[in-house]
Amino acid sequence: MALRPWAVWAAGLAAYTVAVLHRSSIGVAGLDAQERFGVGGGALAVFAVLQLLVYAGLQIPVGLLLDRFGSLRLVLAGAAVMASGQVLMAFTDGMGGAILARVLVGAGDAMTFISVLRLVPHWFPAKRVPVLTQLTGLIGQLGQVLSAIPLAAVLAGAGWTTAFLGTAGLGVFVALVVLATLRDTPERRISGAPVSWQQLGTDLGSSWRHPGTRLGLWAHFTSQFTGTVFALMWGVPFLVAGQGLSRATAGVLLTVFVVTGMLAGPVLGMLTQRHPLRRSWLVLGIVAINMTAWAVVIAWPGRAPLPLLVALVIALGLGGPGSMIGFDFARSFNPPSRLGTATGVVNVGGFVASLVTIELIGLILDYRTGGGNDYHIDDFKVAMSVQFLVAAAGVAGILRTRLLTRRHVAAESAGLATSVEVKAS
């Protein structure tokens, strides 16, 4: 019996890992996509931007559906939608089909992560939740390793169609494992109680109005975006076309990025558990490390040396674990009945920041190269600098909502104390 929670979690984790593979596949295939579809950097960014736009736009609706229908149904639906998107990508040779394929991947991806995350508090004691939440997000990033190494190798060898059909087949296989293994709760309940649209709106409004939920959103927004931009779209072009590295070396650096997150995640999970009043400082510290690393690489004359690029990907690898702290804010300040909704609200943050940044970088590159893909390192330096503006907006959001959250908690505590005094009298 004690093994059942781990089996359920492992099945959900496998589904999320494959979702990350689907999500990041276009980044690894970015240069191949430009050649296949005959497009520049701005048009290429449309793939990732639409995918992330669909993902972010569906987070709140999916969160509401998750509280109603449970994790199993949504994970299976997400797997089917993503597999269909990858099959379409395998055979299309036009931009229209490719865009639709990435929209399907974004829609299926939107159903997966928060559904898996919701399993943790149902199957494990509360003291384990922060660490297991970190591990869920971070082990799932092995999907980026699958895209950076095996998928890249298949692309270079067997070609485009075989590579994307292979990812679709892997998604179907994992969906069958999920169907056989995953259950929403130990009581085998597969859905929540029926609720009205009015109640759904009330839950969403209550989640949003609590400043602690918005603090989680801004924490996720600020710490996640630069690593997502790097891994999902512009990392490989930056390293290969900008820094002059081979595809193999770029793949190794992406693997270092993922491994860093996996090693840092449990540490940050324990720090979050032991020092809940210092969570926002952890996020701000990670953001400072990320932006400092980018500043040094951008300021370096010409191409940066390999050790500095290794330091950059290590710094960026901290962003994933940092963004998971945002979900701990959602858990802390919302009741279980609306946890899916609150988690969806938080998860919007980092992906909105990522899609805005991806598109801005693509537009800047197009402006500097006249729409071509003959990139110079200086083009990337200018384009990547837009990340500092996005980070500044996120830090401002954290500082403001942190202050509001502290005031809200103090007011709640004062109200509780007054209620106790009234009852005692």
UniProtKB/TrEMBL annotation:
<feature type="transmembrane region" description="Helical">
    <location>
        <begin position="97"/>
        <end position="120"/>
    </location>
</feature>
<feature type="transmembrane region" description="Helical">
    <location>
        <begin position="39"/>
        <end position="58"/>
    </location>
</feature>
<feature type="transmembrane region" description="Helical">
    <location>
        <begin position="380"/>
        <end position="399"/>
    </location>
</feature>
<dbReference type="InterPro" id="IPR011701">
    <property type="entry name" value="MFS"/>
</dbReference>
<feature type="domain" description="Major facilitator superfamily (MFS) profile">
    <location>
        <begin position="3"/>
        <end position="409"/>
    </location>
</feature>
<feature type="transmembrane region" description="Helical">
    <location>
        <begin position="306"/>
        <end position="327"/>
    </location>
</feature>
<keyword id="KW-0813">Transport</keyword>
<dbReference type="InterPro" id="IPR020846">
    <property type="entry name" value="MFS_dom"/>
</dbReference>
<dbReference type="Pfam" id="PF07690">
    <property type="entry name" value="MFS_1"/>
</dbReference>
<keyword id="KW-0472">Membrane</keyword>
<feature type="transmembrane region" description="Helical">
    <location>
        <begin position="339"/>
        <end position="365"/>
    </location>
</feature>
<dbReference type="InterPro" id="IPR036259">
    <property type="entry name" value="MFS_trans_sf"/>
</dbReference>
<keyword id="KW-1003">Cell membrane</keyword>
<keyword id="KW-1133">Transmembrane helix</keyword>
<feature type="transmembrane region" description="Helical">
    <location>
        <begin position="215"/>
        <end position="236"/>
    </location>
</feature>
<protein>
    <submittedName>
        <fullName>Nitrate/nitrite transporter</fullName>
    </submittedName>
</protein>
<keyword id="KW-0812">Transmembrane</keyword>
<feature type="transmembrane region" description="Helical">
    <location>
        <begin position="281"/>
        <end position="300"/>
    </location>
</feature>
<feature type="transmembrane region" description="Helical">
    <location>
        <begin position="70"/>
        <end position="91"/>
    </location>
</feature>
<feature type="transmembrane region" description="Helical">
    <location>
        <begin position="248"/>
        <end position="269"/>
    </location>
</feature>
<feature type="transmembrane region" description="Helical">
    <location>
        <begin position="162"/>
        <end position="182"/>
    </location>
</feature>
